[in-house]
Amino acid sequence: MPVEHTHPHPWKTQDPDWGNPDRKGMLLSDQIRKFCTTKHPDGLLISDGYEEGKLRPAAFTLTIGDDYADSEGKQKKLSDEEPSFEMPPNSIVFVSIAETLDLPYYIAARFNLRVDWVYKGVLLGTGPQVEPGFKGKLSCPLYNLTNRSHTIVRGEDFATIDFERTTNFVNELPENVETNIEKKGKVYSYQSGETEFLLFDQKFLKPLGKYPKDYKIVSSLAQMQRDLTMWRRIGIGIVVSFIALTLSLLGSQSNLLREVASTGKDLAQSRIDNERNLSQLKIELADTKRELDKTKDQLNGLREEVRQSNKK
């Protein structure tokens, strides 16, 4: 289990308030100051980057560090020449924290975004707890949930971190603890009597230390936006096609109705004409019958005259 110093600070394992019944709970500013400014090559809690002006009643203000990964997943660095970068709308970026942490084994930490960033539509995408014993630089993803870009500036205040004592650890020097630990999966085990404590590796975690090297993390929100744009275009195309089809059907229906009306009109007119022709035919037949009857009477008269003439 590698360590940064041959002789770590005694408070790494030994709580200076050991035995004090009021030691449990969240650390106020006086306790944070005591751990951070203790005489040692490095302090504890905020081991590098501690400034009195960043101290709050029960927390410490964290600032944007140099290392970051942009919305396309490319790892970059801020500098004096390029002290800021843009976080596009609906995107995710990874940022690092300028301050270095070194937590005792009996103090856990929680960090979260400052409220003014939340009001700007930016959220912190990470778990809130930093495990006891952590050493290194924190990194975290930021989500821009708005439709406008957000500028992130090097050294800008963006998060706060608070500290809380856990249940009792062992009242032994760090050298005694670190030389009697065993690897246990992803963590280490330290046995004190019948009590087993699980400890994290004390290897220093660099900025973006957990950021994958073999692939890029691109915002699912940005992908979702692209997909939404695509589906919007498809949807618009479908709507346009539907409207065109509807208009075509309405046009066809209108034409069909006109044709049906025209055909009906023609049929009605044809029926009227047929009825007129039938009436005319009936009149003509009646006239013909009268003519036939008249001719028949004339024939009968002639036949009678012939018969009378033969008798003479």
List keywords for this structure.
single chain, 312 residues, alpha+beta, Deoxyuridine 5'-Triphosphate Nucleotidohydrolase, Chain A, 10-stranded antiparallel beta sheet, 3-stranded antiparallel beta sheet, 4 helices, 27% strand, disordered N terminus
Would you write up a description of this structure?
It is a single chain. The chain has 312 residues and is of the alpha+beta class. The protein has a domain at 10-218: Distorted Sandwich (Deoxyuridine 5'-Triphosphate Nucleotidohydrolase, Chain A), CATH 2.70.40.10. The protein is 35% helix and 27% strand. The protein is built from 4 helices and 18 strands. The chain has helices at residues 29-36, 115-119, 174-178, 220-311, and strands at 25-26, 45-48, 55-56, 59-69, 75-77, 84-87, 91-97, 100-102, 107-113, 122-124, 129-130, 135-136, 139-144, 150-153, 157-165, 181-184, 187-192, 195-199. Strands 1, 3, 4, 5, 7, 9, 10, 11, 13 and 15 form a 10-stranded antiparallel β-sheet that branches. Strands 2-8-12 form a 3-stranded antiparallel β-sheet. A 3-stranded antiparallel β-sheet has the order 16-17-18, with no helix packed on it. The protein is rod-shaped, with a radius of gyration of 49 Å. It starts with 24 loop residues before the first strand and ends with a helix. The model is unreliable at 1-5 (pLDDT under 50).
